[in-house]
Amino acid sequence: MTESITDKSIVKRVSERYAGQRLDAVLANMFPDYSRSRLQQWIRDGSILLDGAQVKPRTRLAGDELLELNIHQPSPPDGDLPQAMPLDIVFEDDAIIVLNKPAGLVVHPAIGHANGTLVNALLYHDANLAKVPRAGIVHRLDRGTTGLMVVARNLRAHNHLVAELQQRSIRREYQAVVQDVITAGGVIDAPIGRHSRDRLRMCVRDDGKPARTYYRVIDRFREHTHVQLQLDSGRTHQIRVHMQHIRHPIVGDPAYGGRHRLPRQAEQALIERLHDFKRQALHAFRLTLLHPESGEQLTWQTALPQDMQLLLAALKDDTKRHG
User: For residue range 110-167, what is the model confidence (pLDDT) as tens digits?
Assistant: First the structure.
């Protein structure tokens, strides 16, 4: 169970220019490091006092009041313990960490994965991440997906990155190997929701949340295609569901991939390579965002993991051999 601890108290005088405005709106301006929802919760639980008294979020200010903010930070939940684990960090400063997640690493602790997760590794790397929601993780990658993720190291950076995601100004680009041959690029605009029978899976459904994925062809093989994809939204399993929806599931996807499609007269090496690929062939290879402090647009890029490189090499060799 998550508990809270009071880290510090901040006292500020309300400027007269805020006279007539609502308390919750003024707090958002005076304390930009914290989200509106967090500030409103602190008002409700009595952690924010106005002239020493508890008030409601909609309280109108007259100006010159004394605001007392008792900052509560969450302690890590039971089981979210620091663990020494290797992290492939491609960039870090006081505000953010950008890392390259390997296949098989679960991002958040859950039933069956109480430890050995990315959260555990991050808490060991930086103990202060225990004071940031979800140890600073603002977006996730599925266990079998590899590639770039950004982590916020403080509340100000966390709020900034969450806002960027909501405004869709963080660009996340992927590469994947999918089944069958795609003739041209396009866009998949199809809402995604929970599967009605299998609660662990998602699917395209009319009452789902809006989701849009752009894709273009990098290379074509006899029965497969190497594609580049970009998210315009961030639904659970979005790329995997969308590619299945257009009948080009990702190679190796245990939930949405279906049976392997083997080219005619394929060599044994390619057959084994495809059958041995036990995760979705999906990699977040490029990440672009505005730095939370400097405002500078930054881009990072990582090479495809070795298993995907070997798979692509086998598909290219098969194409050369058989045309």
Answer: 766 778 999 999 999 999 999 898 899 999 999 999 999 999 999 899 989 998 998 8
The CATH number of the structural domain formed by 4-74 is 3.10.290.10
Half-sphere exposure of residue 177: CA atoms within 13 angstroms, side-chain side: 26
Task: Please give the backbone phi and psi of residue 144, each rounded to the nearest 5 degrees, phi first.
Answer: -85, -5
Q: Could you tell me if residue 241 is left (phi over 0), alpha (psi between -120 and 50 degrees) or otherwise beta? A: alpha
Reported as a single tens digit per residue, the pLDDT across 84-103 is 999 999 999 999 999 999 99
Class of domain 171-322: alpha beta
List the Cα angle 146/149/155 in 5-degree steps.
155
Give the domain ranges of the chain.
4-74, 89-167, 171-322
The yes-or-no verdict on residue 5 having pLDDT over 60 is no
In which residue are the tokens 């194409």 written? Answer: 319
Can you give the pTM of this predicted structure? 0.79
Residues 6+ apart with CB under 8 A from 311: 177, 251, 273, 274, 277, 281
Q: Which CATH class is domain 89-167?
A: alpha beta
253 a catalytic residue: no
Burial class (CB in 10 A: 0-12, 13-18, 19+), 140: middle
- The residues with which 67 forms a beta bridge, in sequence order, are 12, 50
User: Among candidates 117, 55, 125, which has minimal Cα distance to 96?
Assistant: 125
Mean pLDDT, the chain, as a whole number? 90
Given 142, 253, 307, 318, the catalytic residue: 142
Per-residue pLDDT tens over the stretch 186-196: 999 999 999 98
Task: Report helix angle 306-322 to 268-275, nearest 10.
Answer: 150
User: Given this chain, do its domains 89-167 and 171-322 carry the same CATH topology?
Assistant: yes
What's the CA gap between 256 and 262, in Å, rounded? 17
